[in-house]
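To fix ideas, we reproduce below a protein record of this kind.
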Amino acid sequence: MYLLIPAAGMGKRMGSDRNKLLLTLLGKPLLSWTLIAAEKAQKIEWIGIIGQPYDFPEFKNILETISLNKPVELITGGETRQQSVYNGLQALPKTAESVLIHDGARCLVTPNLFDKCAEEIANSQGLIAAIPVKDTIKIVNSKQFIKDTPNRSNLWAAQTPQGFDVNLLKECHEKGKQLGWQVTDDAALFEKCQLPVKIVQGEETNLKVTTPVDLAIAEFILKQRLTQ
């Protein structure tokens, strides 16, 4: 299985002016923890890290420090996540039939979740890891008044990894470029192309580190794991 890791995000909501994946968690950059999980996943055989060239020297330092046994390629990203994934898809080895895409900021992903998604994509055109929503969600108007309360049993919070048939995802990205679609994840492109996307049960601890509070929670979870 081939894995693409978008890793070009700036840490504005973290209060940082640098790539947030270079911030440290228990002494290691966030990206290191993502890569360590990918290394331990049995199904993943190739890793592409999508980022900006000015971060590549630090990415290379991370790779040297954790000594991965799997081949890793650094891929130049675009101005948006969507453009970055597009570039990542073009850089995949020609033998790639399926791909997993995982946000580098979800650094608490487990090898088991990687493997579960890799196994499931063999029987699907597209999938995402997701968890049921626990909060009651409100849909509001532009003046912040509630318009509707959707049935919580039908709501899932999207995570990554997300997995896709490579050729189909490339077609969706090309169509998105032509029609000017702007989406926040690759599943949305699949949906716009009327293609099926399956839910795979994600993990409560697979949070996206975006704010200082997220970083504190991630540190707590990681400490718990390392003492088990």
Observations:
- The mean pLDDT is 93.
- The chain has seven helices and eleven strands.
- Residues 212-227 form the longest helix (16 residues).
- The CA atoms of residues 104 and 219 lie 16 Å apart.
